[in-house]
Amino acid sequence: MSSDATALDDERERFPTLTPAGRAMLDFLREHPAAPTYRNQSGNKLLAHEVEDVRAFERDVAAASVGWPADRRPAWLDDFVRTTYASVPHYRALGAVPAEWSQIAPVNRADLANDIAAFVPDDADIARMINFRTTGTTGHPLIIASHPVVAARYLAFHKRALRRFGVQLAHGAGQVGVVLLGFQQRCFTYVSVTPTMGESGLAKINLHPDEWRTPQDRATYLDALAPEVVAGDPISFAELLTLPVTMRPRALLSVSMLLLPALRAQLEQRFGCPVLDIYSLNEVGPVAVYDARVGGHVLLQPRLYVELLDSAGNPVAPGQRGEITVSGGFNFCLPLLRYRTGDHAALDMSGEVPVLAGLLGRSPVRYRTPGKWINNIDVTHALQHLPIPHFGVHQEANGVVVLRLAQAMTPLGDQARAALEKLFGAGSVMLAVLTADDKTVQYTSDLAGARE
């Protein structure tokens, strides 16, 4: 088979429903004079009937309510538990469904990392399954079992989040819908189209200058794409702020890292659009979006049950902080039962939709200050007035606090140190440069008792 024929077959596999208009969009994204180096190939892989299924799913999610009565679990959960125990090897091996919810043993990332296949249902379509590897900031790199339909379903929850802020997506054929930003030495980059949005364009790009013919091409290319939505993390958004772009997206979506209010304010002022802070996990997908009007992250998934557990696996009292533990979800290749996420918050059930208040990623860490312990949320509050995209705070065994900032943020170092010294005392905070590891855990300590 010729190389051209092989390339065509690869394209058909990645884009089974591609039309001439969709191919023209792919060509535009790849061949623009200012385009970056695209190092990878990817695609939606959706079959024609799956495109319609995803559209129906989006309509259902848009119309569904999210939540459950404060004194009991959601009605759909019992059937979900029975199906999971019958079809998932890990649970089937445990025997009958426990009589009480509390008897279902929680699982965590280490359990999935140890044997992901044991958590995949028997009826999963192995031939259509896709897998991707996540980096292990908590010591457990993980392969996630997924499917092209599951990947396409993310958009339903992003749309729900955007509608909360008055944004209804409209870009379709001949337009670029989404640009995904990274800013790393090397990251996965590709172009694609979104069939449920008229084959609007999608591009995952790396803003690192080494990925471009000239650094100036970054702004030229983004302005040429004029995406409706730009998604990234605080690191890539901080780099975006340095570029002389004139594009006007309708929204920015921040995922994967803590977004401090000062940086959000800078982005909103610069681009004149809402900046959504979305709490999302590779294992679960988009979970919640921050809404200052309700004081926390509003849940997005109609079929995701959230409970908060203490370190012993017991539910915390109403209004208390605990580890976010989820059941259900939309990934039919990885149904979850009492999955401990490693993230912590309080759950507010007082409104129309459950809200995660005081959300902090990963296990909370206590820091020793003169005379008392404080939570890492206090550290976050101390720094929130500064537009820092990412940072690390480590307390050494002798009590000294090391604040790590990216090289570009060192001009803010003195202000950040002064803010922390209000908590820890004068002369107790040292500055260091954050390493190239984009996934650095933000809060760490060598002190005994730092982990609650």
TrEMBL record:
SUPFAM superfamilies reported in the protein's UniProt record: Acetyl-CoA synthetase-like (SSF56801)
Keyword Phosphoprotein annotated: no
Family annotation (InterPro entries): ANL_N_sf, CapK_Type1_Caps_Biosynth
Protein EC: 6.2.1.30
Keyword Cell membrane: no
Listed GO MF terms: phenylacetate-CoA ligase activity
Protein name: Phenylacetate-coenzyme A ligase
Species assigned in the record: Duganella phyllosphaerae
Source organism phylogeny: Bacteria, Pseudomonadati, Pseudomonadota, Betaproteobacteria, Burkholderiales
Gene from which the chain derives: paaK_1
